[in-house]
From TrEMBL:
Source organism per UniProt: Micromonospora fulviviridis
Name this polypeptide is given: MFS transporter
TM segment ranges: 21-41, 53-78, 85-102, 108-127, 148-169, 175-195, 207-225, 245-266, 278-300, 306-324, 336-360, 366-384
Keywords tagged on the record: Membrane, Transmembrane, Transmembrane helix
Bilayer disposition of the protein: Multi-pass membrane protein
Amino acid sequence: MTLEARYVRDGTTRRLKRSRYAVASLFFLLGFGFGSWAVRIPDIQNRFGLSKAVLGMALFALAIGSLIGMPLAGFLAARFDGARLTRACAVTLAVMIALPPFSLGLPGLAVVLCLFGAANGALGVTMNTQASALERLLGRPVLSSCHGVFSIGGLLGSLSSGAIATAGLPVTVHLPIVSLALLALSVSGGPYLIPTEPAQRSPAFSRPSRALLAFGVLAFCVLFAEGSVTDWSAVYLREHLLASPVGAAMGYSGFAMAMALGRLSGDRLATAWGPRRLVQCAGTVAVLGSASILLAPAVWLAVVGFALLGAGLSVIFPIALSGAARRNETQPSSAIAAVSTVGYLGFLLGPPLIGFLAQLTNLRGSLLIMLLCAAAVLPLSLALRGRRVTG
C-alpha cells in the first residue's frame, strides 16, 4: 500500500481539509516571501553600494539558482518522501529570506541569492506536487486556486513591505521578522502535508513524452507573456500612449488583479468545463487582450487589454502542471519540475528578447510576440484531456 493510500485510509474529511489549508499555506508562503523580498531590493542595493549593472548580475544569480532548484527537486522527489522534502524546502526558503542583508560583500550576496533562488525553485516544484496529490485525493482540481493564493500572498507581501520600508524599519530587521513568520507558517502546516511514495525503481530524469513537451511549451508561452507584461507594460503605456505615472502603473495592476481573480475561480471552471475547453477559452481571451493592448488608441483601453490578458493567462499554467502530473502519475514531481523549468525559462527570456526586438523595430512591434504566445495556446491545448475533472 502506497503512502498516499495509507493517508486516505487513515485520514478523515477534517484531515483532508487541513491538508488543503497546509498546501495553500505553502503557496502563500512563497508569494508573501518573494513579495516582501522584491520591495526591499533597493535597500540591499544601497547597503552594498551596487550599481544597476552589478545589482542585475547579483539578481541573475537568483534566477540561476531557481533553474538549478527546479530539476533538483524533481531528482530528490524520486528518492525521498514528498512531505518531508516539501517541509525542508519551505524551511530553507524561510531561512534564506533573512540572509541577503547579512552577506559578506558582493560574492557572498551572489552565493546567498543563488541558494535563495534554489530554495524558491525547489519549493515551487514540491508545493505544486503536493497540490497535484491533493487533487488526486479530493477528486477535483485545486491547483488554480492555490496559485491564486500565491498571487494574494505576493500582493500582501509587497504592500506590507512597502509600508514597512516607508516607516523606516531597516531591512536587517524586517527580513528576519518575515523569515520567522514564514518559519512558523511552514512548521505549523508541515504535519498535514501529503506523503508521497519515492519512485525508487524509476529514473529521476527520463526522456519526456510528446504530451509533456507540449505542456512545457504551453508553460513557456504563458510565462513568456507574463514576464513581458511585468517588465514592459509600464514602459509601453508611457512611451506609446503617453500615460501618466499612475496610468502606466495601472497596466500591470489590472493584469495582476485579473490573474489573481482568474486563478481563484479556475478550479470551478475546470470542473464545469474540463481543462481543454477552459484553456481554449482562456487562450481566446488572452488573444483578445493582447490584440487590445497593441491596437488601443487610449490608455484605458490598453489597461482593459492587460486585464483581459491576465484573466486569460491565469488558469493555463496551473492546468499545464496538473495535466503533466496526471500524465506521469509514477513521477509527478519530475514532470512538474520539467514543465516548471521550461516555463521559467520563458519568464526569464521574454523581457530581454522584447527589449532586443524593440531596439530593432519599436516596442509595439516587439510586443507582437506576446500575441503570438497567446495564440499558440489554442493548438497546444490539444495535449490536455478534454474530460471534466470530477470525483
